[in-house]
Structure prediction request, 59 residues.
Amino acid sequence: MPGWSEDISKVRSEAELPQAVTNYLNFIEEFVGVPVIMVGVGPGHDQIIWRGDYGPPAA
Prediction:
């Protein structure tokens, strides 16, 4: 499976992810049979991307 070399640490939405990342996440979902609902793109709490219809829990 092809990887990616782009820096994704500044990505803040699913639409901004490189296609190779989306393909990888889709593969994981199919392989394990559960949705990947959040993706960390760095160490910060603001570096989490929520996928699909999911979003952060209500405060």
Q: What stands out?
A: The longest strand covers residues 38-40. The CA atoms of residues 9 and 41 lie 5 Å apart. DSSP finds one helix and two strands in the chain.
